Amino acid sequence: MTDTPIAFDAPDLADRLAQCTPEQLDTLGFGVIGFGADTHVTLYNAFESQAAGLSPQRVLGQPLFTNVAPCMNNFMVAQRFEDAQEENSVLDATIDYVLTLRMRPVKVALRLLANPDAATRYVLVQRQPR
Amino acid sequence: MTPDLAQLGAEHEALIQFLYLAPVGLVQADIHGEVAMMNPVAAQLLMPLSRNGGLDNLFVALEGVAPELRSVVAGHAEPSGRVCDGLHVYLNAGQGAKRVPQILALTLLKLDPERVMAVISDITEQVRRERRLRQNDAWLNAILAGVKDYALVSLDLQGRVCDWNPSIERVTGFGQDLLGQPYTVFYPLDAMTPEHRQDRLREADANGWSLDEGRRLRADGSLYWGSSLIAPLPDRDPLPGDDAGPAYCLILRDIGDQHGLPERGHDDAILDHLTGLANRRALFEAAGRELGRSSVAPRPTALLMIDADHFKSINDRHGHPGGDIVLRHLAGLLGENFREVDVVARIGGEEFAVLLPSTDLARALAVAERLRASVAAHPATVDGQPVAYTVSTGIAIAPDGEGGIDRLLARADAALYAAKRAGRNRVDHWRAGMDTHSAHQQEDADAAA
Asked: Structurally, what CATH architecture does the domain formed by A26-127 represent?
C-alpha cells in the first residue's frame, strides 16, 4: 500500500482494494460496497455510509440487493453479478446510474467488479459532477 | 453529541432505512414531473426505462410507456386528489433478461397544485397469477358434471391448438402433432369450412360458448359421435412476450358409438325416416344458421334443389316399394357426392335439397353436374332389374345470407322448373327474371298430359 490515493478508474482497483484495511477504505473519495458470493455485505466504507445516511452496522451482513440497495436489483446491476458468477467470468464494468441517496436521485457512476478467484465483489460509487 | 441529538440521529437513520427498504417505489415530484425525492425501488423500476440515463423527471422516465401521464396530470383540475389509481403500465423493456418487470402499477396522487406523489410497483407476477387463476376457473366452469370421457384443448385467437390435457390421447388418439393445428383436425375431412372454423369462435365470443354435436375424427381415421364446446377464456389479450397464448377452451367429448354411426340415425326429429338424410326441418334450421353467419361474415351459400325425373312413372311401373328403393338409391348417391359440411335433405316425396356453405355458383354448377352424371350412370336395382333414372337440379345462390331460406328455396325451385322444362336430366341456375313457377306444376302438368 502506497500513499498514492487509489483512483476510481484504476485498472487494478480490485487488487488494490483487497490490500486495504477498513480504515484505509474509509479515506477513499468514492463509495465502496464489498460483498460475498451470497450477496451479504462485508465492506461498507465511510464515504458510502455518509452518502446513504446509513451506519455500517445497519448494513454489514445484510443481503445487498434486497436489503441495502434495492435500486440495483435489476438487470443493469444485480443480474450482471449473477451472470458473471454463473459463467465464472471476470466482471469489470462502469455504468451511469441513479442512486437515491437519502431519497434524492443522484447521478453516479457505478463500477462493478467481480472475479471468480476473489471472495469479495465490489460495487463502487462515484458521484457525477452535477 | 447530546443524548437527545444522538437519539434523533438514530431515529432519522431508521426512517431512512425504512424508506430504502419499502418494497414499493415512491416518488415525489413537482407538477411538471421534476423529481424531488424517490426511494430505491422507484429507481430500480424506473432506471431500465430511462432513455437519458437520469431520473430527474418522472414523466420523462415514463414517457416511453405511459406518454399520457403529463397531460393527465396537467388536465387534473382539482387542486389535489388521485390522478390515477393502480394504472397498469405495460413495458417492453424485454431483452429476454430475467427480473425484467413487464407490468407496473402506477398510482399518482396530486398533493397540491405544485406537487405529485407516485407509488410504483412491479405487478408482473401478480397479474400472471391472477390470469392463471381466472383461466383455471373458466376451465372448471366449462367442465360439466357427468361427463364420461372428454379432452380439454386450449386454442389461440385463431383457433389453433396451443395446449391440451393428457386425455386427448384416449379420446382422439392425437398427441404431440396437434400443436399449432386448427381445431378442425378433430372433424372429418370437409366437415368444416375455414369460415365455419371462425364462425364457431365468433359465436363463442358473442354467446359465451358454442356447442355442436356430430361426427368426429380420431387420429387413426375412425369416426365417433362427439360434442364440442368452445368457450372464450377471460383475459386473453396477449401479455407482452406471450403472443400465442390460450384464448378459448375446447372440450371434446366422446358421446359413444350407440348413436348409430355412420347413419347418424340418432334423432328421428331431424332425420328422414326413409333415407336417413336430414329432413325438411333440419335443412331449415341449418340454413337459418348458415345464412345468419353469412350475413356476419359474408360468403356465398348455395342451395341445390334436386328432383327425380318422371318419378310418378317409376312408381307406376315398380310400385311404391320400388319407388322407395330408387329414392334410397338416390340418397346414397347424394351422400357420396357432397362434403360432410353440406346438408343433404329430403324435403318432399322425390324432392331433395342440398345446402352448400361457402360455395359460389361455379362450384355449385360443377358439383350438380357431377351428381347428374353420376345418377345417369348408376341405375338402381329393383327386383334384380336395373332401373335407370335421371335427376334435374335447380341452383340458387345467396351471396351474403340476404333474403333467407324462403327466397333461396323459391329461386332454386324456379331454376329446377327451368331445368325440367328444358328437357330434364340437366342443371340450371336461377337468374333475374326467371319465373317463380313451381317445378311441381310442371311435373303435375306432365303427369296429366
From this structure: 2-Layer Sandwich (3.30)
d(CA B394, CA B428): 5
Instruction: Tell me chain B's radius of gyration from C-alpha atoms.
Output: 34
Beta strands in B233-318 (DSSP E): 248-254, 301-308
Which residue intervals of B113-166 are DSSP H helices?
Answer: 124-142
CB contact under 8 Å between B98 and A78, yes or no, is no
Residue A32 pLDDT more than 90? yes
Cβ count near B62 (within 10 Å): 23
pLDDT at B354: 97
Angle B201-B202-B203 from CA coordinates, rounded to 5°:
90
State the average pLDDT over residues A16-39: 94
Do B161 and B179 contact (CB within 8 A), yes or no? Answer: yes
Buried residues in B214-234 as b, exposed as e (16+ CB within 10 A): bbbbeeeeeebbbbbbbbbbe
Compute the distance between CA of residue B34 and CA of residue B326 in angstroms, rounded to an integer.
89
Residues of chain B with pLDDT under 70: 1, 92-100, 137-148, 238-243, 256-269, 435-449
Q: What is the pLDDT of residue B206?
A: 84
Contacts of A12 (CB under 8 A, 6+ apart): none
Domains and CATH numbers, chain B: 3-122 (3.30.450.20), 127-259 (3.30.450.20), 280-448 (3.30.70.270)
- How many residue pairs bridge chain A and chain B with CB atoms within 8 Å of each other? 84
DSSP string covering A22-52:
HHHHHT-SSEEEEE-TT-BEEEE-HHHHHHH
- Of residues B16, B53, B97, nearest to A79 (C-beta): B97
Out of A53, A72, A97, name the one closest to residue B13 (CB).
A53
Give Dmax (Cα) for chain A. 37
| Phi and psi torsions of B25, nearest 5° | -85, 130
Residue ranges of alpha helices (H) inside B86-158 are 124-142
What is residue B99's predicted lDDT score, i.e. its pLDDT? Answer: 56
| pLDDT given for residue B393 in this prediction | 97
Q: Where are the domains of chain A?
A: 26-127
For residue B115, the distance in angstroms to the closest alpha carbon of chain A comes to: 16
C-alpha dihedral (B31, B36, B41, B46), degrees to nearest 10: 60
The answer to whether B44 and B55 have CB atoms below 8 angstroms apart is: no
